[in-house]
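pasting for ref
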Amino acid sequence: MPCYQTFIEGVEEGLKTVVSILPALVAILSAAAMLRQSGAISAICDLLSPVTDFFGFPSEVLPLAIIRPLSGGGSIGLLTDTVKTYGADSTIARMACIMCASTETTFYTIMVYFRKTKVKYTKRVILAAVFGDLVGILCAFCLSKINF
């Protein structure tokens, strides 16, 4: 019976965790979907494209760089579209793959872990995590330009 009781306690704790993070999870996934469907990401990409074009950063991977910190599923969908559109051996697809591998779904991860541990002060963590994502994006750009 102790094994069964431990299992039941684990399930109960897991369900409590799901219930506690569900509102924030729905909010962040809804925000990511609204950004993609409303055309806001296209507008942001159009706004940033002169700067990125100046540095040689392809504007085709900008939507992935914007959505990756918000949604893992959305970014994988964009990655799949990029690979299908440009081919798996293209520099753009390789850059997108490196970008997905070297960045994290920052806001989702912070929301899940900090909600569970009841951490309230996240300002410095978010700044550090976004900086890490920017470093990952720049490394993806540099590695794809050097190697491919």
